[in-house]
Design a protein that fits this description.
Helix 6 packs across helix 7. By secondary structure, the chain is α/β, with parallel strands linked by helices. It is globular. It starts with about 35 loop residues before the first helix and ends with a strand.
């Protein structure tokens, strides 16, 4: 999948770390307590916060209504060892840069999952001695950022290493047990028949360990795919693999199945424009699939000739688009309505009711509001246009409609 993320030097040492048993930390070091429903964690697109010209998460949230981000990637240190780092170079233990991104997202009512693995670099499953020490390394990440969701991106070359896959699946099971409510996704390569031999072996490893994540997602690109029809065919085939591997019926398999696409031009030159994403989104929702995500928000913007020149880019999509077009598909999958970008028209006549109008209950950052709910803020009553939490009334494009002074 992540061929745009440069491969890193292989780890040269293996360090054992004692297994941790820390329960899920519900708050970050800054005291953030944001928790989204699983649909949002399932819809979180990938964002590299330290590479590929990171876009502003706040700007994406403002423009699209997106609430969840899949931050990538946590790896073993480039120089060896069993401790978590960002991209193999920035230790999680001393990180402040990614922590700042997380805090910004949570301050706006959103949250993050963290993805471990990916295509490049040395993975902790390769560097750590066993599942327990691998889990202990990942627990540091969960504790550091107060995570409620985590993604295991298991693909080449790690998923060809049976010992590493054993460590990763075992670690995922330990984290699931020690962190009640943790949303766990497992992402792997997609092929025309669903997933390849190594992907099927990974599923068998999960079965043998008695591990069931929230979903197993495939990446149907970079494998000779040609548009949405080839991707939905692969998803259908993968559903059959899940049925035969775990003994699930079709509906149960779809409820544990996910899609992870690549927006625009893939590494191998396949093209997946917005229309393809809409087709796959329709398939995912109609079959009640658990996850719909893509690689990546760093690429969810228009290329210029200087950016791209007809090649696949890590910082733009190589298709004609407005900024954050693809993020809006994730918002729709989560069950929300993306903003149109057009301010609410100013009504003719009086712009506010008489001052004697009673105020509704005061707006609360902790409360969840759905379409039609009302709240008072800043001396005005406001009506929610769609699901919202911790988004202050006031922005013309936002989830709140001004009902006038109270």
């Amino acid at each position: 999948m992540r061929r745009l993320h440069a491969c890193m030097a292989a780890a040269t040492a293996v360090t054992a770390v004692a297994a941790g048993t820390t329960a899920l930390v519900a708050t970050s070091a800054s005291g953030a307590t944001t928790v989204l429903d699983n649909r949002w964690y399932a819809a979180a697109p990938y964002l590299m916060p330290l590479d590929n010209d990171p876009p502003s998460a706040a700007a994406i949230m403002d423009a699209t209504g997106l609430k969840a981000f899949q931050l990538a990637f946590v790896l073993a240190p480039n120089g060896g060892g069993c401790s978590p780092t960002w991209d193999g170079t920035a230790p999680v233990a001393s990180d402040t840069a990614v922590k700042g991104v997380v805090d910004t997202i949570r301050a706006r009512g959103g949250d993050v999952s963290v993805s471990i693995g990916g295509y490049g670099g040395t993975k902790l499953g390769q560097a750590c001695a066993d599942p327990a020490s691998t889990a202990a390394a990942y627990q540091q990440v969960i504790t550091k950022y107060g995570l409620h969701a985590i993604d295991f991106d298991l693909e080449e070359p790690e998923y060809e290493n049976t010992a590493a896959v054993h460590n990763e699946i075992g670690a995922a099971k330990i984290l699931q047990q020690n962190n009640p409510g943790l949303y766990v996704s497992v992402t792997t390569a997609g092929t025309a028949d669903g997933t390849g031999w190594f992907g099927k072996q990974m599923l068998l490893e999960a079965k043998s360990q008695g591990f069931t994540p929230n979903n197993f997602s495939i990446m149907p690109f970079d494998g000779g795919f040609n548009g949405a029809a080839s991707q939905t065919s692969a998803l259908t085939n993968f559903n059959q693999i899940l049925q035969s591997t775990f003994g699930w019926d079709q509906a149960t398999a779809y409820a544990h199945e996910g899609f992870s696409g690549m927006n625009g031009r893939s590494d191998t030159g396949e093209m997946f424009p917005q229309a393809d994403f809409q087709t796959v989104l329709d398939y995912a929702t109609s079959h009640h699939m658990d996850r719909f995500t893509f690689w990546s928000l760093n690429r969810d913007r228009q290329c210029t000739p200087a950016d791209n020149g007809g090649r696949t880019s890590g910082t733009c999509s190589s298709v004609a688009q407005n900024a954050w077009d693809f993020a809006k598909f994730s918002v729709k999958f989560a069950g929300a309505t993306p903003p149109t970008g057009t301010p609410t028209p100013t009504p003719t006549g009086p712009t506010s009711p008489p001052p004697s109008t009673a105020c509704k209950p005061a707006w609360s950052a902790a409360s969840v509001y759905v379409a039609g709910d009302e709240a008072a803020y800043g001396g005005h009553n406001w009506k929610a246009k769609w699901w919202t939490q911790n988004e202050k009334p006031g922005a013309a494009w936002g989830p709140w409609q001004d009902e006038g002074a109270c």
